[in-house]
Amino acid sequence: MSLDTSRFIAEHVDALKPSGIRRFFDLASTMDNVISLGVGEPDFVTPWNVIEASYHSLEQGYTAYTANAGLLELRELISDYLKTTYSVTYRPEDQVIVTVGASQAIDIALRAILNPGDEVIIVEPCFVAYASAVSLAGGVPVSVGTKAKNGFKLQPEELENALTSKTKAIILCNPNNPTGTMLNREELLPIAELVEKHDLLVLSDEIYAELSYEADYVSFSSLPNMQDRTILISGFSKSFAMTGWRLGYAAGPAELIQAMTKIHQYTIMCAPTMAQYGAVEALRSGSASVEHMRKSYRQRRNFVTSAFEEMGLMTNKPGGAFYIFPSIKETGMSSEAFAEALLIEEKVAVVPGSVFGESGEGYIRCSYATSMKQLTEAMKRIKRFVEKQQA
Ligand code: PMP
């Protein structure tokens, strides 16, 4: 008889639900000719000069660990970038840490601040990792839903209703995955007031900040009195098409960044050295390639927004990121049934909104980080599928 190894698994890990996105990828990978609007990553290859700089660093023998918090040169560039782009000032020496993707920044930020039972507000529909990251850090995720009729924008009174004496932090993602919603200064200010009134911290996930299409991006940290209450999280995955490099960063109050660095030094040591050299080049030279990608995403956003409108599926025009979140309520199907049938019948992979939280039910997430040719074909197939359901 083989040993039942499952009994060794910690209860809080056993209780985690596997990400609902994976199931669709696994199914799609068994099929030919599938157009995937499922994955949340750029279709661009990392700019060549970034690849070359990383390659060069290896040739020069830079193959050892860096400082725990990352190369000082990279932290200086991150600090300069945040200042020139978002008017927020961070000392590279002790207020910036380079991490293994924004994912690790979120993990160590939560582990650094949460005592068992502390509550963290999660604004749904949201990135699938937040709730699990809070649970793994010993905290309790508390969901606040947003609605399509409000453009999936967090309503301050709904946020305030969810706060308790145990609330320690809010995770805000702006622009948002999966809705593409972007909050402007006027919409962020009342949230900042509540953060101050209730003595909270904000984990501000700004990984899509470079991909804003309508208005200038406002970093949460730049709002009055918010710099001391914000851990700004970002990275290179989306804006520089560097998902596989696994490089991100956090900037925040020195005490919090130092607490995060303690966890980082014992668990990770440092982010990959060759990726850090690539990131140095990305920040030194990056704005032209970022602008090129942003323009292309904007064009695709306009195309998919009109396509869904023409199909009669209600949708908000995304303000940022590379996702659109149209309603499929018009078909009478659940989001999971819709996504599954669309994949099997028309070979288009999308993600059911329900995986992003309860308030995502009735919607699907489509990533438009794929070529116009693929998008045009995908929209044709979705239209045919929707018409069949409504016939
Ligand atoms: N935050 C959000 C909102 C994301 O969508 C993602 C990636 N899908 C991440 C963080 C993680 O990014 P990284 O590759 O830098 O770990």
TrEMBL record:
Residues 33-382 form the Aminotransferase class I/classII large domain. Keywords: Aminotransferase, Pyridoxal phosphate, Transferase. Belongs to the class-I pyridoxal-phosphate-dependent aminotransferase family. This is Aminotransferase. GO terms for molecular function: pyridoxal phosphate binding; transaminase activity. The keyword Transferase applies. One of its GO terms (biological process) is amino acid metabolic process. It comes from the Bacteria. Pfam families: Aminotran_1_2 (PF00155). It comes from Terribacillus saccharophilus. Its cofactor is pyridoxal 5'-phosphate. The keyword Transmembrane does not apply. It is an enzyme of class 2 (transferase). Its EC number is 2.6.1.-.
